[in-house]
Structures are given as C-alpha cells and as structure tokens.
Specification:
With 287 residues, the protein is α/β, with parallel strands linked by helices. It has helices spanning 7-13, 16-20, 42-52, 111-118, 136-144, 157-169, 183-189, 209-215, 240-254; strands at residues 23-26, 29-34, 58-63, 78-82, 87-92, 95-100, 126-129, 149-154, 176-180, 196-199, 222-231, 258-272, 275-286. β10, α8 (209-215) and β11 form a beta-alpha-beta unit. α1 packs antiparallel against α3. The radius of gyration is 20 Å and the shape is globular. The structure holds S-adenosylmethionine. S-adenosylmethionine binds at residues 71-73, 105-106, 110, 131-133, 136-137, 153-156, 159, 182-183, 200-201.
Length: 287
C-alpha cells in the first residue's frame, strides 16, 4: 500500500514557504493558492494537507492567476481532494459564519481587521456596513457592543441569504439589519443616520465616499473606515495616494465644508508584490 507522505516531506520537496503562506482553513475546507509549477503535485500536496488537518473534508485549489468575479469577489476553485462541496461553517472570535465559497466572498485573513473595527465602536452607535458579504463585520460588532444598530448591505443575493442565516445563528436579529441592494442606492435611503460607515471594498470604495459622508449624522463627528489599494514600500508613504484620493473626492463634492482627520492608518494585507490593501480610519466633521 502506498504510504501517505507527511506534510514535512511534501513541503521539503515543494517550496515550504510558498505553500505555508498561501492556504486558509475555512471551517472544514482548505483553500490553497497554487503556483503553476506545483500543479503537477497537487494530489500529493492535498494528501499531505489532509494528514496535517484530518478533520478537513474538502481541499480546493485556487490557481494563482484564477478569475475573480468583479462584482461579487468570488473565485474559481478546483476541488483537488475530498467532497465536491463549498458550504461550510467557520468559527471566528466567538461568532459562527455559514458560507458557500463558490457563491460568496469570505476570508479568514480579515479576522484581525474585523476585531480592530469592532473594538472601536461605542454604545448606542448606528452603523452602516457596506459590502458586508455574509455579515462578518456586522455580526462581530453586534456581539462585541450590544447597544448598536447595524445596516448591513450587499448586492450579492447569496451573500444576503447567508448573512440573514448568520444573523439568526448568532442571535443578533433586530440589531443587524440585512439589506440586499447596491451601496449607492441604499446609502441614499440612509442619509444622515450613521455614526460610522464601513467601506471594505478596496478597489472601489472611493467612488461611494460622497454618499457615505452624506449618510453620517451631520450634527456629530462621524467615522468612516475607508479601504483602498496602494503600491509601494511598507512605510508611511504607502498611505499618501489613498489620503490624496480621499481629499480630492471629498473636496470636489463638499468644498471646504468638511474637517477630515486620519485617526489611524494600517496595512490590512498584502495582495501582490509591493501591493497592499490599506485602511484609513477617517474622522469627519461638518464645519
Ligand atoms: C471584499 S467583499 C467584503 C467582504 C466582507 N466585508 C467580509 O468581511 O467578509 C466585497 C463585497 O462587496 C459586495 N459588493 C460589491 N459591489 C457592491 C455594491 N455596489 N453594492 C453593495 N455590495 C457590493 C460583493 O458582493 C462582496 O460581497
């Protein structure tokens, strides 16, 4: 009988670092980002991962240059081991998230960022979570800070369906309000209501910024968690382009009627050579 290769034996052969940094365990599914030169060894790699993570039922590979859906941010997967299914339940920071990886975006790599934002929320806040996916930011905020109301908006009907399920699973009904719709249209219906707006769509958040500002309560200082993509070295200059973009978009829409302060800025994750998703926590006051 053929003996299973151990994880280390396989890794020895196939560039340890590359594999180690390029896989996620989501519930009982492992997602591996596979470099083309490892393609021929994918079965051996999958078997070794299973030896290391015996509870996993499915292992999928994302080819390095695979297609990402421009609107829903879902990826193409190949099942390389186990059951042909993409639905699973993932536990994170005391929450449970039911997801179908074929139809919705989900990344465990955002867990630190979700907690960072949740910990900034004060009692009594009204929040708009745009681009909410299956509701991860909204549900974590609701469970971390009980006295909050979170409008949770996504345009993907599958994301809305899973978000609604997850709101019930985490017992935050009434506190998190799932909304199926386009961010721009929904922001227009929520003008002036929010203390805080989350915009976790790095490639396009800037185009929704004016509507997000109008959704803030004009009588208070509001907070926008603004996500963007930036290229450069991992130093302070990386944030110059996103900060300039924010200032440009907001001054052309609001003139000098806003005071904008960057309360915090950080790299959320690396998405390519010298390319990063970054976040700016913007304190916005109407003057
Ligand atoms: C990067 S994912 C965000 C995931 C989520 N914040 C999380 O923590 O898992 C982006 C999401 O934005 C949604 N989206 C993209 N364009 C949108 C739009 N114009 N209006 C509302 N949702 C949109 C996509 O369907 C997708 O679920």
């Amino acid at each position: 009988m053929k003996q299973k290769a151990t994880f280390n034996e396989v890794l020895e052969e196939v560039k340890q670092k590359e594999l180690i940094h390029s896989y996620d365990v989501i519930g009982d599914i492992i997602v591996i980002r596979l470099h083309p030169e490892l393609e021929s060894q994918k079965e051996q790699i999958a078997e070794a991962f299973h030896t290391f993570h015996p509870k996993v039922r499915t292992i999928v590979a994302i080819p390095l240059y695979s297609h990402t859906d421009a609107l829903y941010r879902t990826r193409d997967f190949d099942v390389i081991w186990g059951d042909e299914r993409f639905e699973t339940t993932h536990k994170e920071s005391g929450c449970v998230f039911n997801v179908d990886l074929k139809h919705v975006f989900f990344s465990p790599r955002l867990s630190y960022e979700r907690m960072r934002v949740a910990q900034k929320v004060a009692p009594g806040e009204t929040i708009i979570n745009l681009f909410s996916g299956v509701g991860c930011f909204s549900i974590l905020i609701a469970k971390t800070q009980l006295q909050t109301k979170i409008y949770s908006v996504d345009v993907n009907p599958y994301a809305y369906e899973y978000m609604t399920k997850n709101v019930a699973l985490n017992k935050v009904e009434g506190q998190v309000i799932p909304i199926l719709g386009d961010a721009q249209t929904e922001l227009e219906k929520l003008e002036g209501v929010a203390d805080r707006v989350l915009m976790p769509l790095p490639e396009e958040a800037y185009s929704f910024l004016p509507a997000a500002v109008k959704a803030l309560n004009p009588d208070k200082v509001g907070m926008i968690h603004y996500y963007d993509v930036s290229t450069g070295n991992r130093d302070d200059e990386l944030f110059n382009t996103p900060i300039d973009r924010v200032k440009e978009v907001l001054s052309s829409n609001f003139g000098n009627s806003l005071r904008i302060e960057v309360e915090e800025k950080r790299i959320v994750r690396s998405v390519g050579p010298r390319k990063y998703h970054v976040v700016l926590d913007l304190r916005i006051a109407f003057v």
